[in-house]
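call fold(seq) -> tokens
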Amino acid sequence: MKRQTRIGRLLVTALLIQFLGCDPYSYIPARKQTAPPPSAGAEPASSPAPAESPPPPAEVRVDVNQQLQALEARVKRLEGQLAELEQRQGYPPPAKVAAPKAGVQAAPPPPPATTGGAQDKNFQEGMRLYNAKKNSAAREKFASSLKSHPQGGKAAEARYYLADSFYQEKKFKEAAVEYNKLVHQQGQSVLAPAAMLRQALCYHNLQQKQNYQATLKKLVQAYPQSAEAKEAQKWLKSEGR
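ret:
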């Protein structure tokens, strides 16, 4: 009996040794591997890092900075123009006129008419004719508007476009007289500096250099903060060269 027990124990021990010596997971089917196993001694490969866009070249970064600086400068200029427009009570700044040269007529583009304030029919018809380049007929309507509304809300504009209708026909003497009337009768109008600048151009085209320079100096003194005064200063400097 003892011998059988001893033999049973030996068989159990042998079976245990055999079991421990084999691969306990050999009965489990092997999974399919999508990648070859790493070679012996090689470090396990880390998971690939997410793709990152390469940094922009130095030229691109410099160009972007330049564009930002240009945009900031443009915003400052626009803010200055907006402040000037507010001071002009809705009138857009007059178009920039190049400094006159000897023997060259500098045609000054007038500022567009405003829509605010009371408008009489003569003024409206005068603007329609003026835009159609029918200067003689437009002058008659502007003159009628000034006669019926000498101190009306459109008096300065009627006088300005009346003067400019002369200027467009190269009647510089008559234009200078009308521009001068605007300055003396509506000196507080936002169109007064523009009228003085155009008056100076009339004298330039009439080859009256003394009157031309004197009008520019008066413009700088009377309206020093206006855009026309700054333009007049440039013209005076060009005359001194």
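The CA atoms of residues 116 and 196 lie 23 Å apart.
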